[in-house]
Amino acid sequence: MNSRTEKSLIDAIPKGKTLSRDFYSRNTETVALELLGKHLAHRSANRVRIGRIVEVEAYLGPHDPASHSARGMTPRTRVMFGPPGYAYVYLVYGIHHCMNVVTEPKGHGAAVLIRALEPVYDINSRTCGPGLLCRAMGIDRRLNGCDLCGEALFIREANREPFAVTRRPRIGVDYAGKWAKKPLRFYIQDNPNVSRP
Q: Residue range 174-186: average pLDDT?
């Protein structure tokens, strides 16, 4: 890639401060709510893709039976128990990738699932669901454990236009008993890119 192309890719990324480690090292519900409206960016060798986060789900740790960490630390969930501000990317049903951001201090095992994005730059397919957004953004297991405070996959501040937030139960966690009904899914009200109302 020549320097001119690299400069155009860098210029394409909306100006805004990349979220710090301290942002992620907080209560998971708080982080989930504050991720709404921010920009997720993936910079690969020849392109930059950017989407505005419009829907998320909070997974609170080993005491939350809907969370992968409820089964303890495994090779799959090791990233969840690591430092905050890293990507936890896994494959579901052997088909779809899902991206989470690790939250709270190291050892806690909590994360926020990114459920839907609003396309901002160089996204040409649907982003209204965790598998769809990962496909559109080029996110797969190769990015599992990626530092979100780095330059390849990161989340930045964005111009925050006022919006209302809707809280609903998480999707697809009926096995979690009473935890399935907890309102831990948050989305920007009336946004057309949300996976479901």
A: 97
